[in-house]
Amino acid sequence: MAKALSRQRYAQGARDTPVALSVNGRQYKLHLDARVTLLDALRDHMGLPGTKKGCDQGACGACTVHVNGRRVLSCLTLAAQCDGQEVTTIEGLATPDGPHPLQESFVRHDGFQCGFCTPGQIMSAVALMAEGRAGSDDDVREFMSGNLCRCGAYANIVAAVRDVASAGGADASL
Amino acid sequence: MLPFEYARASAVDEAVNLLAADTGASYLAGGTTQLDLMKDGVLAPERLVDITRLPLRGITRDGDGLHVAALTTMEELAADPTVVEHLPIVRQSLLLGASTQLRNMATIGGNLLQRARCRYFRDPTVPECNKREPGSGCAAVAHTARMHAILGVSERCIAVHASDLAVALVALDAVVHLQGRSGLRSVPLTQFYREAATSPDVENVLVHGELITGITIPFLPAMATSGYLKVRDRASYEFALASAGVALVTQDGTISQARVGLGGVGSKPWRSLEAEQVLTDAPATEETFREAAAAAVQGAWTVPGTAFKVELAQRTLVRALRNISGVAS
Amino acid sequence: MSLVDTAPVIGAGIDRVDGARKVAGAAAYPSDFNAQGQAYATLLQSTVGAGRIRTLDTTAAESAPGVLSVITHRNMSRLPDGPITALGASPPAPLQDERILHHGQHIAMVVAQTPQQAVAAARLIEVTYDADDPVTNLQDPRAERMDNPWGLDSERGAVADALDTVDVKVSATYTTPDNTNNPLGLFATLAVWEQDTLTVHDATQWPSMARATLAKVFDVPESAVRVLAPYVGGAFGNGLRVWPHVILTVLAARMTGRPVKLVLTRPQMFTSIGHRPSSIQHITIGAERSGELVAIDHRTTSSVAMEDDDYEPLAASSAVSYACPNVITRDSQVRLNIPNPTSMRAPAEGQGNFALESALDELAYALGIDPLELRLRNYAENHPGNGMPWSSKALRECYEVGAERFGWSRRDPAPRSMRDGDWLIGYGVAGVGYPWYAQPCNARATVNRDGSAIVRSAATDIGTGTYTVMTQVSADALGIPLDRVRFDLGDSDMPHSPQAGGSGLTGALATAVQDACGGVLQRVLDLVREDAESPLRGCGLGDVSVGNGRMHRRDRPEEGESYADILARHGQQELTADGTSTPADPSTLGMALAGAFGAKFVEVRVDADLGVIRVARVVSVIDGGRILNEKTARSQIIGGTVGGIGQALFEETVTDAGTGRIANGTFGDYLVPVNADVADMDVVFVGQPDRSTPLGTKGVGEIGLVGIAAATANAVYHATGTRIRSLPITLDHLL
To answer: CATH number, domain at C336?
Structure first.
């Protein structure tokens, strides 16, 4: 495939596309190279670097955000695909009243070490609870397995989620 | 990725026509395969037609079975009450695959069309890949193979079809519905795929521009038990080393109907009529299961790295059958 | 059971001070930084494992949209090598000639206006090679071999004679594969030149060293270089050296006159920043019927790059782990066409311990003695080499507490004797002694007019909790409430600090911080020495106590005053003092300097048919000396344990012979443990403060990982009757 492409194809310039989306309740109107992923759009074009790039290949979960209320990987989503949709990132979790209960619980239970995977873990955990999957340690472990943590904070992540879930926060979505 | 033009279709006809007119165009659904391969440099379409806004959603049922529109996500299908109650093999195959994030993105149509995970295929700097460049050889055969196939393969290509759902669906005789430039057609899923042994570079019967619009999953008989077992190194979030999607109808200790699909071991989702033949009208015992498993791996072609799968596939199938039939070890 | 001494702030499991920021996504990692007008770099890498570049055509790339520069060995400046650091030589300078030493070697850098343009342009570079057959196998006769590379080979007694006369002997070969550190945070560098000053954001574990290196390589004074790493997305050893991609990014910024940002891809994280090398280890252990060890012979071969060094003395700890009169340890390295190995969490110990503790287990079964009992029978009360008492060693307690918590006594000694349905159950144990390590360190403490304090050092917090622990140490030393103390790090402009590595930072830095804080207290006392208004006039350090932002007399505690009052009265905006720590000197102390010790107990479950292996639970009992924060210390142990599970069951970086290409260089193919792989982990700290430092702490950053692989292999043997002597232990070996 690679050899078959002409030099000209390689030397083509970017094709831009309009993208209008809502992120954390705020409207953005952008004109982006069609190749820009939602992840790169958030980080490089919308001033929201809280969502992290751990692999850019859909294998680590660090880039997890919510699109229309569901947790997805922003590195395998084009920004253009999110035209007209609602995106929530880690920066949009806290309210004027304070941090999300899960954010507090992560701090209390030390559910992180270096903190790089943490935004993705928390976004995943918020969705996990809304999905009704925080009812047991085993459920939390299984349904959080799409978020890698090389520092190995898993046990504390599970404790943090279960703490909020058993405190009746199971309905505590956004 | 190389530059491309992004377009969005709002009607199926429109999408099909856009592609039919342009050999350099590709569909974009969930993106979990398409964008991944574009980033790797394996695919470089000049135009992407986003089909995610097409009216291809919804799950309905009738006497024939469950009709699932192609843009249904894996999570949506797994949560469907009918699937939960009547098709454990489907539900388990879905929930054991990928991660929740990926299952929220991946569509049923896209899942069936996912491409090989082989790291030689996915790295264009590796010259030997018959799937990318027919005739260039197979680096996996020459080098490291562990997550590769043993059925439907040859020295030309040993890439595995990694979909768990597709294994369950071929076992159930699902039918895939297509719409293309020349109209509509339906193809049994068991006839939809091509084996890597014969054509590594052509994976299925789709012609350019043909779109999967939905699938029909026939129901199992009411007394059937079914399930999906996936064996892998880590406890979650990994493709199968070997898997089995099975269904049995048993009366008075004798199997009257059997369905067997194997995953992690086939260059296509592997329906094993050979195993089903052994199982049908046989007593539901471990001995029968082992005999069926031996039949299932007849004709396996291995390289040193995949040789263990011949034994693992058999034991996985036996365990899957034991699990749904309550036969103890 | 003895508990570690705690003071109110030291030891308490307070929440991380950087926690609120991290859970809000507000901590800035190297890839989060941007500079006005920055350009983006990408790397092109060799696709052959050895040989030379024959032709290289960059013309199409240079004229591709948005491209500012294409750097290759043809237009690359001659750069001097980086300096020798406390860890050894710097990696060789990049792009110096056309030779290829490993697959994935950087052969070009493209700089463009956008990242997408850079990546697309790099595909336009045309390269051909004269490829040689790469040397990739540890046993390849072509590989250049170096014996005793660091002069650490040891010998005591007469091993060969002893082995001739022992009752029982176990001899085996153990192998460990390449592993890759793979922190979640993609390594990134942002280089900004302004005139002749350089500012670099980088994923480094050692800003002071990075500054010195860049100054030397680019021939500018150190004062003109600033390296910043306030947060690092994990490192595990990758950030201990200034790697070629960092040099190239800085060079690109100088050449283009623009700030340049490079973020490595995940596959590049396998070939650009070091990894744990593979090993073949031969070990023979001889013992009397009673279980008393008579001789240990441990010889290893590890891989190293063609033109670089890596400190990995795998066998060295075997000389000091047990009371054994006759011991030989020999380490060798062979040069291969592989990316440059370098430290990965618990370097050398992770590999060497697997062999030693597996062999001991095999000996236990050969003798018919309980594996735990065998270790206790050969317990080294004093340093087995020189007979000196350890500065602290509570390993016996580790074993005893661990055995009780784990339920070791429930173990049926016969292999394959414990079962739960389809699951075979096995128990395994391993002992660990981590080497002592310390480097000199500086810190600076400031008390402000308002009574708050800032303490700083050029250290890094790679997830270890340095921000938090040093805030505690400072608050305790100054007597200022925690929420009024800030600890800053990650800036080479701050006082010199050693690396976050070797489990040595906490001890060195805490001592330097205490020293600096003590210095500030002295300055306070100096200020009020003649002050008629101060109840503290004429006091020395020994006459006062501190707390709540105040200093008061020991003999009359009601008499004292706040720092704020003192500074205000004397018209001072702040008081600052520098502090330092130097490593303990074993010769003057008369003790053997000890690192942390640990006992690891692992229960595995193995599916009798499918071979699937699961670690069901782990008990880790650690002697870490004084524990400064029980929450973050526990996290270090559970994190290390997860790394150990990865080493034991999942992790193997596979290099193809013939091409030298890494076959599984992604997170989807290289398997690290996921959440569902990790079940019950019990962590307990025992022991006393270590006697060799004022604070008595011993680093616990790496010991969590060591011993897990051996305990797991031992448990697998107990469960199945199959002894696996190579890692990772996968189901295909158990079918």
So the answer is: 3.30.365.10
